Amino acid sequence: MTPVPVAVLVSGGGTNLQALLDALRDSPVARIERVVSSGADVGALARARRAGVPTVVLAHPDDPGEVVTATGDAGLVVLAGYLKRIPPAAVAQRRWRLINIHPALLPAFGGPGMYGRRVHEAVLASGAALSGATVHYVDEEYDRGPIIAQWPVPVRRDDTPDTLAARVLEVEHRLLPQVVVELARLGVPGKPVRLFPQGSAFVTGDKLAVDLDNTTDGRTGGRADC
Ligand code: GRF
After folding, report:
1. CB-based contact 132:105 (threshold 8 Å)
2. In 10 A of CB 40, how many CB atoms?
3. Biggest CA-to-CA distance, the chain
4. In a 10 Å sphere around its CB, with 0-12 CB exposed, 13-18 middle and 19+ buried, how is residue 191 labelled?
5. Is the CB–ligand 1 distance for residue 119 below 6 Å?
6. Is 5 in the pocket of ligand 1 (CB under 6 A)?
7. Potential cystine with 7: which of 74, 93, 137, 186 (Cβ 3.0-4.6 Å)?
8. Integer distance in angstroms from the first to the last C-alpha of the chain?
9. How remote is the CA of residue 98 from the centroid of ligand 1, in Å?
10. What is the distance in A from the centroid of ligand 1 to the CA of 16?
11. Which atom of ligand 1 is nearest to the CA of 43?
């Protein structure tokens, strides 16, 4: 099996990128072939260079041609802390090959302006008992594409936006590589894939064992061969 070439889009410090670099280092199914940044002074670029992965800095992140060229022949494009909207024309050329990680349980606490600390402030302000991480397909709108996988993080009585963000980030670092490996293993199907948790370890407090069961065709209950 030839590893699926993966392009990772970044705008921040790159801890999700690091989790992918570590998880895919010797992977037979997926290989990070380039890191694309929305700006030159982005911490994630240093992580890519340390790992010897080629980097590209976008001059115009809103230019669909530049985004498509920058992602090259990647079979899967992963938005890992990427804050720009993918131009619709680029989404159309990469349909079902563009995924994003969001630090909350979408469809709640997502959308324009909902990133970083604001997300966790909104979760705490809402009184929600559960937060978590979501990996979803990217479409023409922020945080709206079909959900691929989610993992919950219980909110604690004494949580602050920073303490909640830290526990959600730990789960992100486990969930995102698993989703990338599973999609690559399936050959990145040209239609939506949904991954479900295995067993009943879904909300067992601080137990961070993240196990995913694979695919249905996006509808709950049914199974389909991709
Ligand atoms: C993560 O919480 C991610 O979900 C969100 O931005 C944060 C970026 O973290 N989109 P990093 O740059 O991967 O450390």
Report:
1. yes
2. 10
3. 48
4. exposed
5. no
6. no
7. 74
8. 17
9. 16
10. 6
11. 12
Q: Reduce the DSSP state of residue 82 to 3 states and report it.
A: coil
| Tokens describing residue 146 | 């079909």
Distance 25 CA to ligand 1 centre (A): 20
Catalytic position from the list 102, 120, 136, 173: 102
CA dist 169 and 175 (Å) reads 10
* Helix or strand run (H / E) with residue 123: helix 117-126
CB 146 within 8 A of CB 188: no
Nearest CA owner, ligand 1 atom 7: 81
Is 173 one of the catalytic residues?
Answer: no
| Cβ–ligand 1 contact at 161 (below 6 Å) | no
CA 64 to ligand 1 centroid distance, Å = 23
Three-state DSSP class for residue 63: coil
Asked if 145 and 101 touch (Cβ cutoff 8 Å), the reply is no
Q: Residue 155 and residue 103: Cα distance in Å, rounded?
A: 13
Give the tens place of pLDDT for each residue, 135-147: 999 999 999 999 9
Q: Which atom of ligand 1 is nearest to the CA of 17?
A: 13
DSSP string, 140-200: SSTT-SPEEEEEEEEPPTT--HHHHHHHHHHHHHHHHHHHHHHHHHTT--SS--EEEE-TT
- What's the pTM? 0.89
Average pLDDT for 80-94: 96
